[in-house]
Amino acid sequence: MMHCPQKIILASFGAAVRPHLFAFITLILALCLPPDAAAQSVPPLVFVERRINADGNDAWPAGDLAGAGPHSRVRPAAPGRLLVRESNGTIRVLVDGNAATPPFRLIDVNAPSVSWDGARVVFAGLAAGDWPGAPRQTVGGWRLYVVDANGANLRQLTFTDVAADYSQFGAGSAPWPYDDYDPAFLPDGRIVFASTRWPAFAQFADVRASNLWVVDANGGRLHRITSERGGADRPQVDPVSGRVVFARWWRNVRLPSDAMDSLPADAAQPALGWIRHLGLSTLPADNVAAPGRGARNTWQLAGVNPDGAELTLFGGKPDSDSDGFAYGGAFAANGVYYANYYPSLDATRAAGFGGIRAYRRGATAWTAHSGVTRPDPAQRVAGTPQNADLYNGPYTTDAEPLADGRVVFARADDTSQDYGLWIAATGATPQLVYDAPGTAELRPRVLAARTAPPLAPDIYRDQPAQAPYPQFLPPAGATPLTRDGTFAFDARNVYANAAVDIDIPSAPAVGSAASIRFYADHQRTSPGSFATLDWPLLVGEAPVSPEGRVTAQAPAFLPLFEQLRGAPGARYTVPRTGAPGRNGAAHVGGMNYDRAGVVAACTGCHAGHTLMPVPDDTQAPWSNLAPGATVTASSTRAGARTDGLVDRKVFLGAIRRYWTSAAGQTTGQWVELYFPVPVVVRKVRLYAPRPGDEANASLTVTATRVSLRDDAGVELDARTTGGITMFGTDVGFLDVTARRVRVEILGGTGTFDGQAVVGLAEVEAIAKGAGIRNEPDDAIFRDAFEAP
């Protein structure tokens, strides 16, 4: 039987005629599709069909992906329709933007989400009105609606009902319009959604900041749960934990600076703010971190409990704007998240033109599903400029994993971004499910009952009397920052590192921090994304213990960030992170926050540290401190370095990062770790080189001697071992305070690049700070520390 997709049939009819032919075309499609087509076994789907706008890319003429990023997340694409594709292929209309749908006149729809019992659909709807239609604008009319799965009982859930005094934001800012969008059902029937209700501008492109809100199924008890200064969009519920996972805009325009002077934007006009102030700067030249580390501008996956507590990363590579990018998607039942990837990482200058990646929780590498999943200059669309970030399609987005392992997703062939719905198992050829010409079919969701996730902790559900909601507006100025309460900030060990082969950066070196500074960065008076205005407020400063512990009270429900200060022997500088190279800084590249009354516990102080499990008080001081040590060796092969010994990469990194001795030097060889402050050593873990790879290595280590030494090199204790393995061999000590760890190779065989050498892959030193503060004797430090 012939295959005659709807795109071909409708192409011959004018746009005005197409809606009236819908039922007829659906019947023809049912007759045309082969009976064994993959689409015949698709469960019922609810999805949206929307107009394709122009101006989808600021640098090149292209179609727009409606609903994608700040560029188009609330941009009208009317007429929009909320449709159901039944399992037999027939199409049913729930909301039609071409006609009145009593009791409302909704002209556009987006982002359907199905209740866990399959009975209801919540979605974002736009009523008829005179709305702005350009990219990046706040529309002010998007609200949430609910309809039964059979199309009955359409009702409005959120309203234009905020009465607030916006005068603090300037005479031209009252009232501020806002949009509600991206809803998702929580397991208990409430709804979490994204909204621009909380007044703030993001720190890029003059777009409104977005945050997550929760509302009851009847529209009651509306409250905010996040405090982003950039964005919180596309919430979904993790089927494994019940936590809310969302796209978070990781952006902080104030860069870490060693300089502590103040440079006003205009000395004659103090209201224009600062260029450099309080250890922060807007100047790239002041940034103590590498550009890709200190200046972030991307969307990444984060998670919170439904009450907003316990903010953490979900997964991805935390220190890479590209390899950590995710903007929306859906969970498979096993907890794998199928995320949208867009080459324009801030999602303000273009919408779409990307693909689908699969993320697993933790610091793991994503796997490609379909579409454009990484920038590839060789695949750039011919003639387009580099800043267009346009690569040859097909493009895919909006995955919906099915129970049988297949995935339904939207797919477009080229830069017109005319998406239809397709289905494919991993690695299989996609099959068409539904496609209408000249419109984009997006956001498919299975319209059926599913197993509800567990209930994550939520004080607003479990103890509402003890949990007042945050106020609607942010504080107008510096005080009172704690009007909505405080939470306990408990960093168990800022020097803690993840295990080897966990691909997140290394922590600052032990002893490099004397204090931590807390900044609040909420909207006050700035009328847009101006880096010099609404300069962050220094909330306070707290000491860092020699073991890396920090405890403090911080204002709740506000966007905050932190910065370590006080390297020993230096003048109150920002400690560096990421070994080897130390090209990062102990400075938060985005925002964090929490609700009132909780203890926000974490470990480490580096990108991705929230992916590490939080240890209890007895274990927290102990971590691998080797990445902060200086490494020397008896000899090293030509062209190699020694810091691969402490890069925490055994199987993850290239084999040439290993330390090997100079060619022919196989006796009397050693390596030594020198720590910036004394440490208490409990264990040294040695890793043998793995065999093979590009060096055709065959190295074995048959015996070692590990000694602990003081600053002068006097030996304090020593242990010998037999052979060591590539999976790690422990050498235990009785908590010896030392400054140096020396490893001598007593026996080894094999070759590396055909040369006789000895070598090691990695050395870990499980240790803690020894209780010596080593603060710099510096008036700048004392003033800031004692009187923040």
Automatic annotation (TrEMBL):
Residues in DUF7402 domain copies: 624-765
Domain of life: Bacteria
Stretches the record annotates as Disordered: 369-393
Gene3D superfamilies in alphabetical order: Galactose-binding domain-like (2.60.120.260), TolB, C-terminal domain (2.120.10.30)
Protein name: DUF7402 domain-containing protein
Protein source organism: Tahibacter soli
